[in-house]
Structure formats: C-alpha cells, structure tokens
Design goal:
Strand content: 25-35%
Oligomer: single chain
Helix content: 25-40%
Strand order of the largest sheet: 1-2-3-4-5-7-6
Number of helices: 4
Radius of gyration: 15 Å
Distance between the termini: 28 Å
Length: 147
C-alpha cells in the first residue's frame, strides 16, 4: 500500500526511523564509491529535510518497505529495503508520482548504473552531466515529462 505524506505532516517516530534506516542502508550499499562517513554525516540533515518533502511511503503489514521523497517536482530519493527490491515497488512509487506530476527531475551518480538503467526503463532521459560539490562525483540530471 502506498501512502502519501504531505509536506510537514507528522510521521510516527517508528515510521521516521524506518525511513532513515532504509535511506542510510540503501545509500551505503548503492554507492560504495562514496565514504561511509559522508552518509553518516548527512543523516541529521536528511532527518530534517524529510519534513520539507512530500513522501510516498510503501507499507507492507504496517512496516515501511520503501519511500520516495519529492520536493517541487524533484525526486530527492527513491529507496527500497534490500530484501524488497526487484518486486516492482520502486516502479509503483514512481508511477504514483507520475500520475500527479507532468515533469519530474532527479540526479543520480554516473557510477550507479543500476539506478540509471532503472530510470531510463521508466521513461527518464539524461539531460545534463554535472559534478556534485559535496562528493566531487559525476552525476546525471534526469527528467521525465508527460508526452
């Protein structure tokens, strides 16, 4: 089940902890080319940023399995628990967001080829290449728009 959590809406402490855990574990796993310290350092900022985002949270038996954070058409992140990947959950989250938006943008590290392929398969196109200041890593800006 997907639940939309409006910007500034309250999540329970348990839900927030589950979301932050998924965020941290997924980033560490998907980005071995970035220091573990970087992700740990970002934890508090992400905790605060979640309140400024619209969240689309995927639940299984009242537990958070995945989430997508959206800020004014920018997908700040899409994360699925490791044991729940390759089940179409990420696709479901993106399709839900596509129904409510005519233009979506995101940034993905160039070295994260699995994510790039995932987004291309869902209709996103690479529109720009840039260097992320914080990590000095090359990333692609990708967009999807209603045809």
């Amino acid at each position: 089940m997907i639940k939309k959590v409006q910007k500034g809406s309250q999540l329970s402490r348990r839900e927030l902890d589950e979301i932050l855990s998924i965020w941290l574990e997924s980033n560490i796993e998907a980005h071995p080319f970035i220091s573990l310290f970087y992700w740990e350092e970002q934890y508090n900022a992400v905790n605060e940023a979640i309140e400024e985002a619209e969240l689309y949270v995927y639940y299984e038996k009242d537990n958070v399995t995945a989430f997508l954070g959206l800020v004014e058409g920018y997908i700040a992140g899409l994360f699925v628990k490791r044991e729940n990947r390759a089940q179409g959950i990420g696709r479901q989250l993106l399709n839900t967001v596509k129904q409510e938006n005519s233009l979506l943008t995101l940034a993905v590290y160039k070295k994260n080829q699995a994510a790039i392929g995932f987004y291309i398969n869902l209709g996103f196109k690479i529109v720009k290449e840039q260097i992320e200041k914080e990590t000095s890593e090359t990333e692609y800006v990708m967009q999807w728009r209603v045809d």
